[in-house]
Amino acid sequence: MRVEGSKAAPIDAGAAPASARRRGMAFMLLGAILLTTSDAVSKSLTERYPLGELIFLRGLFIMVPVIVIVQTHGGLAALRVVDLRGQLTRAGLFVISSILFVTSLSYLPLPLVTSLTFVSPIFMTVLAIPLLGERVSWQTWCAVFAGFAGVVIAIDPSGSAWSWAALLPVIGAFCGALRDILTRHMSARESSASIMFFSTSITMLFALTTAPFGWNWPPTVVFGFSRGRLGSRSSSKGW
User: Fold this and answer.
1) CA distances from 46 to 51, 105, 220 (A)
2) Do residues 191 and 71 touch, judged by C-beta distance below 8 A?
């Protein structure tokens, strides 16, 4: 089903001003560095701590910059919800992608998980056509096919090391792509502070329901996340 209210426009990086492109590339580079650090910490912790506890802590530490954003964008007024269904849908996709990603870290090497999660832009490019009515240039399609080929090589379904766990980050990336497309649609009515706050809060509440099943709170967990997750992907779009 197509998301209404979005004008068709080609996905073309050259259409943006040069200064905006440079800022975008700088933020992407910084985000990639923080994301890699965060994922390395998460990978080490999945071997010792419950899934729900890790997801809760990821949300807890990302809530710090989210609260700062809320305060700088009008306080509680910035949390006004206009599209409740959209907020709940996005939060659900956020929860699913987080669970799949953290679970995949328990079964797969970190480099493989990282490689597979970068299939998300491919999904977004394809989904933007029916859901947002956007046009995609042939150069972008070439990049999409090249990226898809890289994902197939990374998964290596015919290899002896094949595992169904390799599908976890791919499905998570698909959910993340749907989440990001929905975010774009919602951004015309909802503030960025509201979107991030409610998605993070609902994810934390969901994770908190697993607290009776073996949670523990050693200082090492908090210390590790405070170093590795403070600037996570959720600050920008999703985590």
Assistant:
1) 7, 7, 13
2) no
- The whole model's pTM is what? 0.74
- pLDDT tens, position by position, 198-219: 999 999 999 999 988 888 765 4
Q: Encode 174-213: b = buried (16+ Cβ within 10 Å), e = exposed.
A: bbbbbbbbbbbbbeeebbbbbbbbbbbebbbebbeeeeee
- Rounded-to-integer distance, Cα 186 and Cα 86, Å: 7
At residue 4, the 3 state secondary structure works out as: coil
Element (H, E) at 11: strand 10-11
Tokens of 171: 């499905």
pLDDT in tens, 108-142: 888 888 888 878 888 888 888 888 887 878 888 88
Handedness of CA 92, 97, 40, 148 (dihedral sign): negative
Alpha-carbon span 150 to 233, nearest angstrom = 23
